[in-house]
Amino acid sequence: MFSNYLIGLREGLEASLVVCILIAYLVKTGRRDALRPIWIGIGIAVAIAMGFGCALEFGSQELTFQAQEALGGSLSVVAVVLVTWMVFWMRRTARHLKSELHGKLDAALAMGTGALVATAFLAVGREGLETALFVWASVHAASDGTPRPLVGVALGLATAVLLGWLFYRGALRINLAKFFTWTGGMLVVVAAGVLAYGFHDLQEADWIPGINHLAFDISGAIPPDSWYGTLLKGVFNFQPDPTVVQITVWLLYLVPTLAIFLAPVGFASGKGKVKEPDDQGKQPSTASPA
Fold first, then answer.
1. Closest C-alpha among 215, 163, 208, 172 to residue 69
2. Which residue in 46, 120, 150, 222 is a FRET match for 33, CA 20 to 30 A apart?
């Protein structure tokens, strides 16, 4: 449940920040008349994301077992690729997100209502589709037969909306750079479990061999139906009897990805944190986008 709460919180807060930036900019510039198209675009994005999630869930139920496993495994891999790209992208661009959105909003205001709707839709829609896919993959990996994963996601999204509202009202100040670094690192751990389970699905679909070649089996020490087994499963997608392929994939993804993610910003691209002085010879601000 915690891992799904983290997904809802992390993804939902990004979308909430985007909405806050758009709304605050229009209010501060006296363009309240443009708020309605923005909300329409946001509403369309949320509806499409929810529809996408429903299509994944109910559409897959009509497939054969092997087809379900192949679909679940393939989409789990896609979801991990997307969420990995997202956490790295957010870490690198969070400081410039506000100015980037302001520039797009200025251009949309000059073009008219349709452009405003499209701007809000694109800004929020990407987050929504990524969230729907990763939540579906995570819930599919949990597969405990209870509504707890969905409850966790709902609580995470509700918390994100509340935090976004508090940011907008100026009632809450936190270091967003550190927040996204820590939650991003935890999300990488969650993604490693989803990826390993996705490869297990592909093995059950006979796409990858080795389904009976276990790395170890500690089901006797950590029963899957025990409270601690359930806790490990919910937080880390832990499996007491993983295959060799699962363990290999988990290690090959988690170790280098987490090391690069937690390295200083610019390490992966070879760029240092060099700042150009402004016209007065002062260093530019590095304030968070909230």
1. 208
2. 46
Question: At what angle are helices 148-169 and 113-142 packed, to 10 degrees?
Answer: 140
3-class DSSP state of 83: helix
Q: Where are the beta strands (DSSP E) in the chain?
A: none
For 214, residues 6+ apart whose C-beta sits below 8 A from its C-beta are 241, 242, 243, 244
Mean pLDDT of the chain: 77
List beta partners, residue 243: 214
Structure token digits, residue 24: 């605050």
pTM as predicted = 0.67
Integer Cα distance of 139 and 186 in angstroms: 17
Give the pLDDT confidence of 38-93 residue by residue, as tens digits.
889 888 988 998 888 888 877 777 778 788 888 888 888 988 888 888 788 777 76
Q: Do the beta carbons of residue 184 and residue 261 sit within 8 Å?
A: yes
42 token code pair: 């946001």
